[in-house]
Design a protein that fits this description.
mainly alpha
Amino acid sequence: PLMTTNERKHLIDGAKWIILEQAMRFLSDFLKNDVYYKVAYATHNLVRANNQIALYQSLLKQEQAMSDYLDNF
């Protein structure tokens, strides 16, 4: 099989953690005056952080459907 049962079980949680981690990294960089990520404008990293939070919220809304899909994968 492509993934083990244990991998499928943790796939959604892994995605949530990665999204939140990236949001924190963008926000942290914004608060430190953009020393890590290259930016095109002053609030670029703040916008990126907000987009990651929106992605996380979208994932939460779709989590059950994703879980159901993975159960049948």
